[in-house]
Structure to design on (264 residues):
């Protein structure tokens, strides 16, 4: 592996082989998402505990100080919105030259396997991988599902993740599901877990993250389950303990409650 590629991946996946990515790219198709209306205010208290941030170029420039940044995974796909006809109809919105100017550690793109725009999104990934390999910038593929929640099962996610790896993605972001080991075992590149819709309790998050780590994930890319929580710093600290300190869900819950009490 080229030095530049290896160096960027090492910025993302830490020396223990694990990672905690913090996505704040939701606005590119959702607009001002709840508790992400002012990205700077959301990000600042959480940055110290994230290994990397998944973000668009506009919010990166407006909301992250260059001297206080963490490694950046730049969202480079888009072109559709929640009010548009089809979220799957995305293209590449940001050039690799722009990614280089912004000194990012990786770029991220969504793929929509099984949709009307499957071919277009997979060719977008292939083109991005070509450009990324040319400049030593890893590509993270996101197995997007959108509103079709029934697709969040092992057979589909294993298919989408394997295709992403086959096309050259260096990291795959996908949803946790039952029998998650079927997804990770069939994907020859590191897999990080997405959060999806916010769940009802913190313990549910700790449970699925712990299960996914036991079944082969290298880490998480969780947004709403962190920054929409009433105590986001406590939440990210608890998740960090599962990912980097092998904490159990019970131990993570104790950390969360302890940190929450400190704030009070």
């Amino acid at each position: 592996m080229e030095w530049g590629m290896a160096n960027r991946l090492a910025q993302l996946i830490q020396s223990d082989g694990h990672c905690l990515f913090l996505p704040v790219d939701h606005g590119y198709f959702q607009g001002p998402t709840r508790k992400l209306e002012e990205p700077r205010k959301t990000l600042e208290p959480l940055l110290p505990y994230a290994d990397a941030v998944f973000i668009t170029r506009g919010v990166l420039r407006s909301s992250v100080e260059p001297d206080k940044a963490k490694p950046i995974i730049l969202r480079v796909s888009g072109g559709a919105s929640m009010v548009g006809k089809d979220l799957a109809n995305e293209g590449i919105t940001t050039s690799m030259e722009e990614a280089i100017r912004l000194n990012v550690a990786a770029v991220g793109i969504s793929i929509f396997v099984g949709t009307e725009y499957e071919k277009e999104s997979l060719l977008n990934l292939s083109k991005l991988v070509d450009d990324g390999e040319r400049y030593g910038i890893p590509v993270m593929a996101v197995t997007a599902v959108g509103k079709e929640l029934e697709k969040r099962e092992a057979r589909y996610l294993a298919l989408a993740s394997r295709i992403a790896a086959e096309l050259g993605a260096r990291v795959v972001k996908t949803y946790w599901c039952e029998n998650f080991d079927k997804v990770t075992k069939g994907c020859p590149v590191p897999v990080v877990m997405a959060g999806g819709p916010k769940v009802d309790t913190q313990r549910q998050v700790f449970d699925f993250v712990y299960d996914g780590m036991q079944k082969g994930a290298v880490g998480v890319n969780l947004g709403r389950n962190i920054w929409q929580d009433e105590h986001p710093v406590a939440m990210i600290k608890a998740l960090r303990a599962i990912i980097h300190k092998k904490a159990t869900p019970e131990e993570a819950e104790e950390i969360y409650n302890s940190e929450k009490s400190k704030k009070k």
Q: What stands out?
A: The domain at 3-224 is CATH 3.20.20.70 (TIM Barrel). Residues 118-135 form the longest helix (18 residues).
